[in-house]
Design brief:
about 160 residues; mainly beta; 5-stranded mixed sheet; about 15% helix; flat
Length: about 160
């Protein structure tokens, strides 16, 4: 009976460590003062140019050298940041892939070329008005939750002739 008790005990311990490792903790404050956070959709003037969303973070002072912005998670997408100025960073979210046309027919052999959709579970369960900023401070990855980023009016680029 004793070996079973040991096995059950170690199993419970292993399960508890697994759940501790899976939970991501959010920082309550970002280590540097943020001036503004907003996103802006844009639409290209030609069919090939498409549309996308840009996510901006502006700081009051230049970003400290010990902090590096890694990724932003927003509306079930994630992307990296690029520096616009010392105080401003932007992340470009490409448009979500369109659902390809499916062939539907009473003869199932004619539906052979249809591809199954690829469903990717997002890293965070976020509301539409929330984003998570992943950053590195002193070589340690941390997460900061951003609530209610402002939406600026959509930019429409004119078509070119």
């Amino acid at each position: 009976m004793k070996p079973y008790k040991k096995i059950i005990f170690f199993f419970i311990i292993a399960i508890s460590f697994t759940f501790c490792a899976m939970k991501q903790e959010f920082q309550t404050e970002f280590p540097q003062e943020i001036k503004s956070v907003y996103f802006q959709k844009w639409i290209g003037g030609q069919e090939e140019t498409g549309s996308a969303t840009d996510f901006y973070i502006e700081f009051k002072k230049p970003l400290s050298k010990e902090i590096k912005l890694d990724k932003i998670y927003f509306r079930n997408q994630e992307t990296n940041f690029e520096e616009v100025t010392k105080n401003t960073f932007v992340a470009h979210f490409p448009p979500k892939n369109r659902i390809p046309d499916l062939i539907l027919d009473s003869d199932s052999l004619k539906e052979y070329g249809n591809k199954a959709p690829v469903i990717i579970k997002p890293k965070f369960d976020l509301k539409p008005n929330e984003a998570v900023l992943e950053y590195t401070k002193n070589n340690e990855t941390q997460f900061f939750k951003i609530s209610n980023p402002k939406e600026k009016p959509t930019i429409t680029h004119p078509s070119m002739k």
